[in-house]
């Protein structure tokens, strides 16, 4: 990895140049995908079908809708929570507290949307506003990240993320300087990571399903599958919300453009690509094939949930009967590494399950186009890169014990392949 100075964390994402490229490339890709999904040829590669003018991109109504959405999710975040969890220990030895009420926010949002729809709210019309909504979200993310950057210049050194304070403004703007920007108890990163984007994603999917029902009389089986699989994924993430407190996004990365844009824009507008594609390119899916795809999703989910729960249980209580019998490697930190069970199969079994689910989300879209497979391709690249970042951090944390783990479990994500 490139380095700035000997005492600074190695630069990631190709340093300032890579960060600058990503700041431009991520929004451009997102707009390309939205435009391509609604176009006849639906080409992933090649130029966009057309270049939209400002009058098509900018709408004050879209901005108002976005701000209302963010306001609603912020209000739901502030409601009393079933539990308040403590995060990992910080540099100053303190621990932050986080409300565990994401699933409650999903249910309350569903109730509000249900009420709205039964009162005549034309939810399907949202599918025609994706372009201006994505534009308003992108602008908001740029402004938000800029404000976060400026605010971080006033933060004490102990509040900074290990990675995002290289001194290069573009790199730091992208990666995020401050680790846990908060106003009072409102934690911006934790809020962004799970709520507006993930719940927004299922809402957009639902709008596309309703629009399809309006256009064709009933939603297609393929649309039901995509909606069902992705709702399960989002519901699972919010149900197990506490697990996000140990991810590198919360522990290691600052809140900058990468996470702000990733969470608020990239997730809802690109993760809903399969449903966008299906609205404009209906697919006939036979029942046996649909059942086969459900089976693939179930296998993926079984591995994903099994691996994540096994690690979470082990980290919370290593003597829990469900994990007490597993083989482990002791480390100098006092923590242990699992070396049997899911974590003895590959070093990232949860990524394997996630990738199998990603395949199941694309299959209902048929094999005539590459576009609906974008998520699978992007996600493979994201997880390979994420695995390498995590590996680096684990090597630093656990040293020799990590090397031993790598020797005993040589494959990273796919057994005997990678
Ligand atoms: N859909 C999407 O866009 C994305 C989804 N994800 C999903 O989110 C979930 C979380 O992923 P992610 O945050 O990357 O990290 P993981 O949940 O895979 O956690 C990695 C951490 O687990 C601990 N660990 C690693 N190996 C072992 C072991 N053998 N025994 C015990 N602990 C171990 C280490 O932390 P420590 O030892 O400190 O506990 C390590 O840093 C995954 O299921 C992933 O697929 C992630 C990113 C994007
Ligand atoms: C495209 C950019 C370079 C990076 C954007 C990254 C974000 C989209 C992802 C970073 C980590 C994420 C996690 C999830 C969603 C995607 C982002 C925000 C989950 C919430 C998905 C559901 C899982 O159960 C937990 C994940 C935690 C990490």
UniProtKB/TrEMBL annotation:
Topology class, membrane: Multi-pass membrane protein
Pathway(s) it belongs to: Steroid biosynthesis; cholesterol biosynthesis
Presence of keyword Oxidoreductase: yes
Transmembrane regions listed in the UniProt entry: 17-38, 58-79, 100-123, 129-150, 250-267, 287-304, 324-343, 355-379
Enzyme class of the recorded protein, top EC level: oxidoreductase
Keyword Lipid biosynthesis: yes
UniProt keywords, alphabetically: Cholesterol biosynthesis, Cholesterol metabolism, Endoplasmic reticulum, Lipid biosynthesis, Lipid metabolism, Membrane, Oxidoreductase, Steroid biosynthesis, Steroid metabolism, Sterol biosynthesis, Sterol metabolism, Transmembrane, Transmembrane helix
Subcellular location(s) per record: Endomembrane system; Endoplasmic reticulum membrane; Microsome membrane
Enzyme Commission number: 1.3.1.70
One Gene Ontology term of the molecular function aspect: Delta14-sterol reductase activity
Pfam families in UniProt: ERG4_ERG24 (PF01222)
Catalytic activity: 4,4-dimethyl-8,14-cholestadien-3beta-ol + NADPH + H(+) = 4,4-dimethyl-5alpha-cholest-8-en-3beta-ol + NADP(+); 5alpha-cholest-8,14-dien-3beta-ol + NADPH + H(+) = 5alpha-cholest-8-en-3beta-ol + NADP(+); 4,4-dimethyl-5alpha-cholesta-8,24-dien-3beta-ol + NADP(+) = 4,4-dimethyl-5alpha-cholesta-8,14,24-trien-3beta-ol + NADPH + H(+)
Alphabetical GO biological process terms: cholesterol biosynthetic process
Gene Ontology CC terms: endoplasmic reticulum membrane; nuclear inner membrane; receptor complex
UniProt-listed InterPro entries: ERG24_DHCR-like, Sterol_reductase_CS
Top-rank taxon, per record: Eukaryota
UniProt main location, coarse: membrane
PANTHER family hit by this protein: DELTA(14)-STEROL REDUCTASE, DELTA(14)-STEROL REDUCTASE TM7SF2
Task of the protein: Catalyzes the reduction of the C14-unsaturated bond of lanosterol, as part of the metabolic pathway leading to cholesterol biosynthesis.
Family named by the database record: Belongs to the ERG4/ERG24 family.
Protein name, UniProt field: Delta(14)-sterol reductase TM7SF2
Originating organism: Jaculus jaculus
Name of the encoding gene: Tm7sf2
């Amino acid at each position: 990895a490139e380095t700035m100075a000997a005492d600074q964390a190695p630069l990631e994402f190709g340093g300032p140049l890579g960060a600058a490229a990503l700041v431009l490339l991520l929004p451009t890709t997102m707009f390309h995908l939205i435009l391509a999904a609604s176009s006849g040829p639906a080409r992933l590669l090649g130029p966009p079908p057309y270049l939209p003018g400002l009058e098509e991109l900018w709408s004050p109504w879209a901005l108002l809708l976005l701000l209302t959405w963010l306001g609603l999710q912020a209000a739901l975040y502030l409601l009393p929570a079933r539990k308040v969890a403590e995060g990992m220990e910080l540099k100053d030895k303190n621990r932050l507290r986080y409300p565990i009420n994401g699933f409650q926010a999903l249910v309350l949002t569903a109730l509000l949307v249900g009420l709205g729809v039964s009162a005549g709210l034309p939810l399907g019309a949202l599918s025609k506003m994706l372009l201006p909504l994505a534009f308003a979200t992108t602008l908001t993310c740029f402004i938000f990240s800029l404000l976060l950057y400026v605010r971080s210049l006033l933060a004490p050194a102990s509040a900074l993320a290990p990675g995002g304070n290289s001194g290069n403004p573009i790199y730091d703007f992208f990666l995020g300087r401050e680790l846990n920007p908060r106003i009072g108890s409102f934690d911006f990163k934790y809020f962004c990571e799970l709520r507006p984007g993930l719940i927004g994603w299922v809402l957009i999917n639902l709008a596309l399903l309703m629009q399809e029902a309006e256009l064709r009389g009933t939603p297609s089986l393929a649309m039901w599958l995509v909606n069902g699989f992705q709702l399960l994924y989002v519901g699972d993430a919010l149900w197990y919300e506490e697990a996000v407190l140990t991810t590198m996004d919360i522990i290691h990365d600052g809140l900058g453009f990468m996470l702000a844009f990733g969470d608020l824009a990239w997730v809802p507008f690109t993760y809903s690509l399969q449903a966008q594609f299906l609205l404009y390119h209906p697919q006939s899916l036979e029942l046996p094939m649909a059942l086969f795809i459900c089976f693939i999703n179930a296998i993926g989910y079984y591995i994903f949930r099994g691996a994540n729960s096994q690690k979470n249980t082990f980290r919370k209580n290593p003597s829990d009967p469900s994990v007490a019998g597993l083989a482990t490697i002791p480390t100098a930190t006092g923590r242990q590494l699992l070396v049997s069970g899911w974590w003895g199969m590959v070093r990232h079994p949860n990524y394997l399950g996630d990738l199998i689910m990603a395949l199941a989300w694309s299959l209902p879209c048929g094999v005539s186009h590459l576009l609906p497979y974008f998520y699978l391709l992007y996600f493979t690249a994201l997880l390979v890169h994420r695995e390498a970042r995590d590996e680096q951090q684990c090597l630093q944390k656990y040293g020799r014990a990590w090397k031993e783990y790598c020797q005993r479990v040589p494959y990273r994500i796919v057994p005997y392949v990678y």
